[in-house]
Amino acid sequence: MNWKKVEIIPCCRAKPPTGYYALNSGGALNEVGGHTAEMLNLVGVLQNDKFAPRFYIAASTDNMSLQKARVLESSLVDQSGALKVKAAQFMQFYRSREVGQSYLTSVATTLIALVHAMRLMLRIRPQVILCNGPGTCIPLCLIAFFFKVVGIRWSSIFYVESIARVRRLSLSGLLLYKLQIADQFFVQWPQLQQKYPRAQYVGCLM
Amino acid sequence: MEGGKRVVFVTVGTTCFDALVKAVDNPIVKQQLSAKGYSHLLIQIGRGSYIPIKSEGEDGCLVVDYFTFSSSIADNIRSASLVISHAGSGSIFETVRLGKPLIVVVNEDLMDNHQSELAEELAERKHLLCARPQTLYQTISDMNLDSLTPYPPADAQPAAKLINRFLGFPDD
Asked: Where does the record place the Glycosyl transferase family 28 C-terminal domain (chain B) (predicted)?
């Protein structure tokens, strides 16, 4: 993992990130709505002049998350004047795995999602990716990793495991952890950090 | 304590959780809630098929009402004196953030029941009480709301600091 750090730090000092994602997921509001709130709490404390422009991506089945992101963005504009109106864009994305979908059909839908993800990522070419599960972020992170390998774009990927995960990682989290695709892997409970030593404990985001 | 009205609000979110609705509709549970000083029971039944019995509260019984969905669950939580909820993280945090006493009832019928992890952890930290549908009456009769501690405010700064450090940005 360390070689990535060495590579990325000088690159970002020279040129600050010009794009980042908050990847959310949704569908049934109360079942996965927590993910969006956690992510937006984090986005709210990042320096919004350095992390710009911002691209928010949510699942196509999710109508609530982007609405919440818009509320956050308009509050950021209020704080810093009307200058940053164009600082954020909102996009929807084919979802690779619905809550409760079987793992086998997930493979097929993930392939379709990969194609869609490729188109989105070629358009945005982010330098910083902030994501949390479930499902939606996997194709985008895989593409980002592919971009790094072939030299299209070097991005830093930050994954935040949901606060709902106390003892075990989610499927998305486990994949990104095991494949070492996330540059930094954040968990919100100390028990998880003990089980997954490369993760970093950041306390509760919600 | 608006005019002595003390509401127990039950929510299953967008799920189907008949076991919880049945559990709170149980006469023993209602009697216990009444004995604990609650006057109203409002149940959000979601996609469930079990319909609880409405009651106008004759003879000092609980006033029981229900609805399926609402866009203003937050208002229901705000006006409640006690919330009994399914284990969804959205409902849990909405309630503890508003500082309302909460009993989370874990749905044992769910296959991948990672949600009980969160409820159990927060119960261990005394931010809420955790129950199963069949032990709800026990939890209510044993409950001491003074033993609950407020959930601390969320803090995203540690994560933001790590991100800034990784990218080589100075902290503010």
From this structure: 7-164
pLDDT in tens, A112-153: 878 888 998 898 888 999 998 766 788 889 999 999 999 999
Whether B95 is in a domain gets the answer yes
Asked casually if ipTM beats, i.e. exceeds, 0.90, the reply is no
Q: Does A128 touch chain B (CB under 8 A)?
A: yes
> Which chain B residue has its CA at the smallest distance from A40's CA?
B156
Helix B89-97 × helix B115-124 angle, to 10°: 30
CB A20 within 8 A of CB A126: yes
- Phi and psi at residue B122, to the nearest 5°: -70, -30
Q: What CATH number corresponds to the domain at position A77? A: 3.40.50.80
Q: Which of residues 102-131 of B touch A (CB under 8 A)?
A: 111-112, 114-115, 117-118, 120-121
* A204 in reach of chain B (CB within 8 A): yes
Name which residue leads in pLDDT, A149 or A58: A149
Which residues touch B49 (CB under 8 Å, ≥6 apart)?
Answer: B16, B18
pLDDT of res. A12? 28
Quote the domain boundaries for residue B94. Answer: 2-167
Task: Write out the residue range of the structural domain in which residue A85 sits.
Answer: 2-164
Better pLDDT: A193 or A46: A193
Give the CATH number for residue B162. 3.40.50.2000
Nearest Cα of chain A lies from the Cα of B122 at a distance, in angstroms, of: 10
User: Looking at residue B67, what is its pLDDT?
Assistant: 96
